[in-house]
Amino acid sequence: MTVPRPLDRRRFLQAATGMGGAAMLSSWGGPAGAADSPNDRPVFATIGLRNQGWNITSKSTQFADFAAFADVDANVLGENLEKLEKQTGKQAEGYKDYREILDRDDIDAVMIGAPDHWHTKISVEAMLAGKDVYCEKPLTLTIDEGKLIEKIVKQTGRVFQVGTMQRTENNQRFLTAIAMIRDGRIGDIRRVTCGINGATGSPEIPAIDAPKGLDWDFWLGPASKVPYRALPEMRKGYGGGVPLYTNCHYAWRNWYEYSGGQMNDWGAHHVDIATWALGAGDTGPNKITPVSYSLPVEYKNGFATVTNQYNTPTNFEIHVNMPGDIPMIITSEGDNGILFEGTKGRFFVNRGKLAGKPVEDLESNPLPEGAVEEVYGGPVSANHTANFIEAMRARTQPISDVWTHNRMLETCHLANISIRLGRELNWDPDARQIVGDDEANSFLSRESRKGYEINV
């Protein structure tokens, strides 16, 4: 089965009576139980609710009705059920086990905000249960997980949106940046630099009892069985209300067992835009070189030698050879954002600004009409969820499809492998294998803990 790509969505939208995406959302006719919905809107459920899980839910209530939530932390689940009722005036059912949501016939799609190590299992099982999927980035913990998700999307024909929302939102800054490159505003690309911030290590974190209400074993899921760890100091600001140093809520991004550090966090955003701009969404890199890096603990054969401290990189400079021998630099230094350099100039873009002389020149020499829409593949949606629902209507793949996301994410995964092993990697983008390095190839997959295997 061939699954249509975003260009098909563009043709669909152009044929749809000229209405914009937001207007089209008023006549939902989805694949499962939504035809019986009294207000004719798709019915969603969210699995994994802390921080980003609630964020994507909150932004989506204008387009969909939420019938169910699932979270392994009873405190997080109860808090978010209350927030949903306060925001929408409607109640949802709450579950600890996400599989009870997948068993329901009235759910059209699930939004997945669980930690990265759960993404693939939940996504695959949701698609096999007949649900469309919106999953937070990064989509996978390994490269082979990405291949599996691609296989199941093709097998089931489900619509799958990855939460790389920079493709849709942020005042079209990133779309404009790509349109400028396509229009030749900086000539031929000579270098791209992705600034994705550094990180910090941690002190030794003791093993303690898990907080009341948290099913720690279920939270670990496919990952190895280890004790819950935390220090008393609490995190402030975004992600607050939990221990600052822990192997659970929020701080799980600092552990390779559950995520990939900054490389798979901010990297999954900025490397995505850079790869899209270079037109490399179907190929990705061919060489990854770790120029410099710092790990917070000692490593042996690619694995941390201690289990009670953060283990993902704190600082790094990675050189990536992209198609056409264009260098991409992924660095923890400098401003967070993307610097594009070409034969005729350069400019910088992030969530707060689009700056540089080529940008200033747009005032007197604007981009051709429709240039941004051409990048997006049609009228730019109201937000990332709106684009997802448009694709659900048309039964096409949305703007952040799994294929281009996985190709981009292969860069981030390979960068992490090169750091863990301390050496350059040559990548075959056709075979999707590391060339001549069996040890490195062993990091392309992982074994799930018994009882938490992926059911296919």
TrEMBL record:
EC number per UniProt: 3.2.1.49
Enzyme class name: hydrolase
Entries under InterPro entries matching the protein: Gfo/Idh/MocA-like_OxRdtase_N, Gfo/Idh/MocA_oxidrdct_glycsds, Gfo/Idh/MocA_OxRdtase_bact_C, NAD(P)-bd_dom_sf, TAT_signal, TAT_signal_bac_arc
Entries under PROSITE patterns matching the protein: TAT (PS51318)
Pfam families xref list: GFO_IDH_MocA, GFO_IDH_MocA_C2
Keywords: Glycosidase, Hydrolase
Protein name, per record: Alpha-N-acetylgalactosaminidase
Organism (species): Allorhodopirellula heiligendammensis
Taxonomy of the source species: Bacteria, Pseudomonadati, Planctomycetota, Planctomycetia, Pirellulales
GN (gene name): nagA_1
